[in-house]
Structures are given as C-alpha cells and as structure tokens.
Automatic annotation (TrEMBL):
Protein name: Uncharacterized protein
Pfam entry (one): adh_short
CDD domains, per database record: SDR_c
Taxonomic placement: Bacteria, Bacillati, Actinomycetota, Actinomycetes, Micromonosporales
Stretch forming the signal peptide: none
The family this protein is said to belong to: Belongs to the short-chain dehydrogenases/reductases (SDR) family.
Species assigned in the record: Dactylosporangium sucinum
Amino acid sequence: MTGLSGRVAVITGASRGIGLGIARRFVEEGAKVCITARKADGLEAAVGALGGPANATFVAGRADDPAHRAETVRHATEVFGPPDVLVNNTGINPVYGDHLTACLAVELAPAVRVNAVAPAVVKTRFATALYEAREEEVAARYPMRRLGVPRDVAGAVAFLASGDAGWITGQTLVVDGGVTLARRSG
C-alpha cells in the first residue's frame, strides 16, 4: 500500500486507540506522521510502535491550546516537511460541531478538502465502559455482529486522505458496522 506515499500528516489524539490505528495505517501507506496527545510517555511508545523516528515524531500537548498547535506544525515541518494532511482525532461536542465539516469544505475549497469520519463504538480503552462485560450483547445490535476496531476507522481515514478521494469534500463518512441503519429499520 502506498496511497499516502510522500505525505506528511499531523494526527491528534494518536498515542493509542483510533488515533494510533490511523497513524499506523498512514505509515503503512508511506506517510510520515507527527502525532500528538497530552502525555509524552504514551507518545514515545507510539513512535516506537510506528517504526521509530524515521516514520514518526511527536509533540505532547493539548489540542485546544493554540501554542501547542503552532509548535506541532513547526516541529512536523522541521522533521518531515510541511504537513499536507490533518487528522483531528479529538472529541467534539456534536451540538456545536454538526455543520463544521460542510462549512469548512466550502470555505477552504479548492485548496483544501475537508471530510469527517463518524465511528460508532470502537474497541479502545476510551470506550471500554460502553461494552465492558457485555460485548456480545452490544455487538448483537450491529448488523456486522461485532464492534469496530481502530483499523476499521483507520482505513476510512486513509481513503479520505488519499488521492482516491480527490473529488470528495464536505462529507461525513459513517463507519458504524451498520448500527444506524439497524436503528432506523428497527
């Protein structure tokens, strides 16, 4: 896989879970990644899991801190070159975030494509409380009869960041094992 070869990506919330899964997929497809999260120790381990400094670097800090964001872009640029992909893998409040993707897609086009991925329950430490001790019961509600794993989301994000999605902008790709369809028909 080389769909992201030569790209430089900044991926937030990437010390574990979905963010680390996305970073892993990007590296597999030839990208260099600068990952962020709050704690340096988790980021150091993640860089190791991604093949070391030849593939990944990190900046610890909070995604809502403008100084951290500026430092991340500066660091990524120094290490790998200017970033051309941003994966904002930090949680948002859906009430305030419902039309942001579409608005930014219109505002930033044609130079920048903006898309979102909306996953259902993904088996991560963050989501454990949603399925712990009852995974079979929760998974039974999904047409795919399983919960998601970080790799499921990573594939969708890699596609949207690739040239294969070059004419897609302003869209939210639902990655949910069909659970929203089951709710509508049930």
